[in-house]
Specification:
6 helices
Length: about 230
């Protein structure tokens, strides 16, 4: 097992149903990627929270997580908790995003997520981005929907600590939530780290991966009980 990520990463696409989803589910990974690929472009689309305090929090947070890259961030004002009622608009926004981006990697909610907003976005991403590597991040919450991810991305301890610091610095509106807790964020990362022989890691779900052996980038794959774990080389 080595590295799932492309040897060349020019454009990263971050998708979230709510402000803070991306940072909670994949903040450590974003920090690691921005360090490893400082010249890449980062585009983010968040479906709810636009026009108020939450949008300001999100823009500041993603700017800090992508320090030095200046991500392009769009925060819409679709209704929180009611995204399935706005299926057509979510689909339209994703299709419009597809027409102006060509991401090498997409980080989005996992398709099995029990929250209806997360789940809808996770289900619609592959209908717009059909030929793109998409990793579904996990969000610890009240619903018992955590599943074992097939993809584990190690996060260095300083990066994990930085993730938690940025979460608490940039999302003060969430401080009263019982799930917004440093032990929760660190604890899940520690479990995922144990599962890949690292101190900390973030887990992702992978629905499909095309495996090839020719061209500029070749791919090696190892099949496990949880699915296919692959490396670009």
């Amino acid at each position: 097992m080595a590295n799932l990520l492309p040897a060349r990463l020019d454009e990263l696409l971050l998708l979230g149903a709510h402000c803070d989803d991306i940072a909670i589910g994949a903040g450590g990974t974003v920090l690691e990627l921005c360090k490893a690929y400082p010249q890449m472009r980062v585009t983010a689309l968040v479906l709810t929270g636009g026009g108020g305090e939450r949008e300001l929090e999100e823009r500041a947070a993603l700017g800090a997580f992508c320090s030095g890259i200046q991500p392009k961030v769009d925060v819409l004002d679709l209704p929180d908790g009611r995204l399935p009622d706005r299926w057509g608009e979510v689909k339209r926004q994703l299709q419009a995003l597809r027409e102006r981006t060509e991401p090498d990697l997409i980080l989005a909610p996992a398709r099995h997520d029990a929250h209806q907003d997360h789940r809808l976005l996770g289900e619609l991403v592959p209908t717009a981005f059909r030929r793109h590597l998409t990793l579904g991040y996990e969000i610890l919450k009240w619903e018992s929907d955590l599943a074992q991810p097939a993809v584990l991305l190690p996060v260095a301890e300083p990066m994990l600590r930085r993730k938690v610091e940025l979460l608490f610095e940039h999302y003060p509106s969430q401080h009263g939530r019982d799930w917004f807790d440093p032990e929760a964020f660190t604890g899940l990362a520690r479990v995922r780290g144990v599962q890949c022989h690292e101190r900390y890691a973030e887990g992702f779900h992978l629905d499909k991966l095309v495996v090839g052996v020719s061209g500029a980038r070749s791919l090696a794959a190892a099949v496990s009980a949880e699915g296919v774990e692959c490396v670009y080389s």
